[in-house]
Specification:
- The structure holds two protein chains of two kinds.
- Chain A is α/β, with parallel strands linked by helices.
- Chain A has a domain at 57-158 and 242-279: 3-Layer(aba) Sandwich (Rossmann fold).
- Chain A is 35% helix and 19% strand.
- Chain A has 14 helices and eleven strands.
- In chain A, strands 4-3-5-6-11-10 form a six-stranded mixed beta sheet, with helices on both faces. In chain A, strands 2-1-7-8-9 form a five-stranded parallel beta sheet.
- In chain A, strand 3 (72-76), helix 4 (90-95) and strand 4 form a beta-alpha-beta unit.
- In chain A, helix 1 (2-10) packs across helix 10.
- The two termini of chain A are 23 Å apart.
- Chain B is α+β, with helices and mostly antiparallel strands.
- Chain B has a single domain, classed as SH3 type barrels (Roll).
- In chain B, 19% of the residues lie in helices and 44% in strands.
- Chain B contains one helix and five strands.
- In chain B, strands 3-2-1-4-5 form a five-stranded antiparallel beta sheet, with no helix packed on it.
- In chain B, a hairpin with a 2-residue loop joins strand 4 (40-44) and strand 5 (47-51).
- Classes of the chains: A alpha/beta, B alpha+beta.
């Protein structure tokens, strides 16, 4: 590891822009101070790896409206509570009398729905490939239990199409730190076509500081060469978790999905299949995205066009206490992590 | 949101498993992977996503050695 650190610190080859597309990687890079361990010629860019941050405002607006409907409770992970829609957040809705409940696992939603069958429960099903199988399990159990009062509002997205969008529309990325937990489900080979198409390396990385450093080292060493390397072999296989993929396919089909800052990307989302439409709480057509603060640069931050520190609100009007955009709300958000980890100064 | 934590299975009960996370135990969904007591597993949002293998150390060393030769 000492050799790797020395190599990365003293690297003096062509300037490289390496993108991480997993919020947990973003958080860990800040927590471990990894950016400071690298040569100035290696620039880390945070991509659209935080599912909460890429969620458009019309989705939040719909959740807020649902929480204010009679006999309806919105169930969500904590990350989403403070994210604002075009007018308010779920926390604001709760303060205004809306019913919003935070859960740690989607499976807790089953208990909630079974306990009050005369009320409607809507789970905010946000996430990437990692979380989609969990929602599939939830639907399977809801079906088996005959629960008709549990629904999902989906905003599920998949990684390869958005990586393709970034490479095609912006370019300038010399390698990707591929998301470890997405790869647990999809398998590492899902990134092979993109790697070949753009002639750049992908390295599937684990989440310790050492694993991330080793993966960055691999990306630098393999610069300019296509190929996918799996440096998280204890959890990731080439083919991924087949049972999880099957469960997702049973309930969901690919669809176009709206991403903050990128608009609708064809085939980048997962929508409930028609035969399971009875579980849907109105997920289709939620594509509008209007930031509350016109100065907010979340959209450009998410695509790596600007660094969080280049946003005029960063660290002034926008801090984790007074977030203006989703990237400063979520603990996986780029702005939050640049602020907390002092990366803005680099 | 894609955070997943490693734990050890201590009991399996149908499609549910009790998982130990450094002393804290939680019941997790085990419908996506076959698990048995003693397995090290990766849990995301209350659901076991994978059984962890111990291959990391050697595999990493082999790959890094190859990279040195590039």
């Amino acid at each position: 590891m000492t050799d790797i650190r020395t190599y990365l610190k003293n690297y003096d080859g062509p300037e490289l822009r390496l993108m991480e597309v997993c919020g947990t990687h973003t958080a860990q890079i800040s927590r471990c101070g990894i950016a400071r361990m690298l040569s100035p010629a290696i620039r880390l860019i945070s991509g659209p790896g935080c599912p909460v941050c890429v969620t458009v405002t019309s989705y939040i607006d719909r959740l807020v409206a649902l929480s204010l409907q009679p006999d309806t409770t919105v169930l969500t992970f904590g990350d989403l509570l403070r994210v604002r829609g075009s007018r308010s957040s779920l926390n604001d809705a709760k303060a205004a009398g809306g019913r919003v409940r935070m859960l740690y696992s989607p499976l807790d939603a089953l208990r909630a729905a079974a306990g009050e069958k005369d009320k409607c429960f809507v789970f905010a099903a946000v996430g990437f490939e990692t979380t989609a199988p969990v929602y599939a399990m939830l639907l399977e159990e809801a079906e088996e239990a005959g629960l008709e009062n549990l629904k999902v509002l989906t905003s599920l997205k998949t990684m390869p199409p958005v990586i393709d969008w970034i490479c095609k529309n912006q370019g300038g990325v010399d390698g990707f730190l591929a998301p470890g937990h997405v790869s647990v489900v999809t398998g590492s080979r899902i990134f092979e076509p993109l790697s070949q198409k753009y002639g750049i390396p992908f390295v599937v990385s684990g989440f310790t500081g050492e694993e991330i450093l080793a993966s960055l080292y691999a990306l630098v060493r393999r610069r300019g060469k296509a190929g996918v390397l799996n440096l998280y072999p204890s959890a990731v296989t080439e083919g991924g978790n087949a049972a999880a993929q099957k469960a997702v396919e049973r309930y969901f089909a690919p669809c176009g999905a709206a991403w903050r800052g990128m608009g609708v990307i064809p085939g980048s989302g997962l929508a409930l299949r028609e035969e399971y439409a009875r579980f849907d709480a109105g997920s289709l057509g939620l594509d509008d995205d209007r930031s509350l603060n016109p100065e907010c640069r979340c959209a450009q931050v998410l695509t790596g066009v600007v660094s969080p520190a280049e946003c005029p609100l960063f660290g002034g009007a926008c801090t984790p206490r007074t977030p203006q955009g989703a990237c400063m709300v979520s603990q996986e958000g780029s702005c939050y992590n640049y602020f907390i980890g002092g990366r803005a100064a680099q | 949101m894609c955070v997943a934590l490693p734990g050890k299975v201590i009991q399996v009960n149908g499609r549910k498993a009790t998982v130990d996370f450094s002393g804290n135990t939680l019941v997790a969904e085990a419908g996506l992977v076959k698990v048995k007591p003693g397995d090290d597993v990766l849990v995301h949002a209350g659901c076991i996503l994978q059984v962890l293998t111990e291959s990391e150390g050697k595999a990493m060393r082999d790959i890094l050695k190859e990279l040195e030769e590039l």
